[in-house]
Structures are given as C-alpha cells and as structure tokens.
Amino acid sequence: MPLLMDTRAVGKVAVIRCNGRIAAGEEAEALRVHVNGMFGNHKDFVLHMGDVGFVDSSGLGTMVRLLSATRRIHGDLKLCNVPPVVAKVLKITNLHTLFDTHESEESAVSASYRKTSAAELAASGGRPVVCVEKNGDVLAYLRELMRRAGYEVHTTNSLADSLILMRVMRPAMLIVGPSLTGSSSARQSFDAACKTVPVIELGADFSTLDAGDAASRLMEKIRLLATSQLQS
Predict the structure, then answer these.
(1) With helix as H, strand as E and coil as C, how does the chain read?
(2) pLDDT tens digits, 115-131
(3) CA 1 to CA 53: how far, in whole Å?
C-alpha cells in the first residue's frame, strides 16, 4: 500500500497527515523526499500518524534521519496521534524518548511555537499577525507584504487552524479573506475569537486588484485601525 501524504501549513509548521505504511522502498523514500522538499519554507514539522498501520526498521530509520535533519536547521519533527501499533514499535526500540510525541495536532503545533526562544521572537521583528485566506497565492503575497512592513506573519487557509494560531500567538491583528469555509463549529469558534482581536477584511476584489493598489488599501486599513486604537 503506498504512503499517502496530505500536507498543510499551520503558520510556520508543516503538518503532514500520513496514511499507509512507512516501510523500506518507495514509502520511506517518498516521506524523505517530501519533507526534504519543504526545507526551503519550513523547518518545523508534525507527522500525524493516526492512519499509519505499519512501520518497519527502514521506515523508522527514515524518520530518525528526518528528525536529525530538522534539528540541524534548528527545527523539529514532532509526532501526533500515534496509534498503538506504532507506539509499541517506538517503545520496543526505545525511540519513544527521541521523538516529541503529542496526542493531537494542536498540541504538537503549539509545542512547536512554544520552543521559539525569546531571542528568536525579538529577531523576527514586529507584532504577530495571523492571515486567513483560502487562495494560496494571496496568502504568499500577504506573507511577504506584511513581513516587509515589519510584522511577524503566520498564515493559513483553514478556519480551524487559524484558531490554533490565535491561541498560540495572540496576534495583534487578524487579516481575513472572503468566503472562508469550515464546519459550523469552526465558524462559530472563529466568529467568537474575532471579537477579541482586531480584524481587517480584505474584500472580495482583493485578489484581482493591481498588486500596488491592494497593498496601499491594506496598509491604509492598518493605519486607520492603529489610529482608532490610539484614540480609544
């Protein structure tokens, strides 16, 4: 059975949901290539193991090598939702002490953020901002635009993941794109969270505006928000 991987970014953390076997041959190699290919954009990873039914010695060796590779670049590879059959393998091999293992994705992602040192936070620049937008190209644009404006930027295309980022980062501002979708419970929780943090809405035409005009409009909204906060 081939190893299937569903990957998404939760802020700076890449969450990889694995389904199948992590075993010698194509499966282990696919995982290695997949993670290595993301080192340009990520150094912190979470492997969701809930749908992994088998790990052999070669597959576990691949996981150990990937853990070492992430730590060499000052990142980490955490595990979550580890099923009993895999937990038993980790225990027998005594590698359960090597991997940082969590019961849920949110716990693993939160731990990835907590390890960030005060020095790293200081070096990152300004206040944290969370951007939520379903269009990946718009998210990339927002990330670079806000970084160059001096903010520490965390992006996601998921309402549920935005809640994790808001709980972890306590952002100074939330930038929200149009037509975001999610479960009714995620929407309710998201709407409640938006009452506790300043929100800037991009508008339905943001993705088709001239890039310079889009930047000017967004910066003006941020300026007006800052002015209103000073006056209140």
Answers:
(1) CCCEEEEEEECCEEEEEEEEEECCCHHHHHHHHHHHCCCCCCCEEEEEEEEEEEECHHHHHHHHHHHHHHHHCCCEEEEECCCHHHHHHHHHCCHHHCCCEECCHHHHHHHHHHCCCHHHHHHHCCCEEEEECCCHHHHHHHHHHHHHCCCEEEEECCHHHHHHHHHHHCCCEEEECCCCCCCHHHHHHHHHHCCCCCEEECCCCHHHCCHHHHHHHHHHHHHHHHHHHHHC
(2) 754 445 555 557 899 99
(3) 10
Give the architecture (CATH level 2) of 4-114.
2-Layer Sandwich (3.30)
What are the domain boundaries of the chain? Answer: 4-114, 118-231
Q: Which residues contact 213 (CB under 8 A, 6 or more apart)?
A: none
- pTM for the full predicted model: 0.84
CATH code, 118-231: 3.40.50.2300
Under 8 Å between Cβ of 177 and 144: no
Do 58 and 28 contact (CB within 8 A), yes or no? yes
pLDDT in tens, 40-62: 999 999 999 999 999 999 999 99
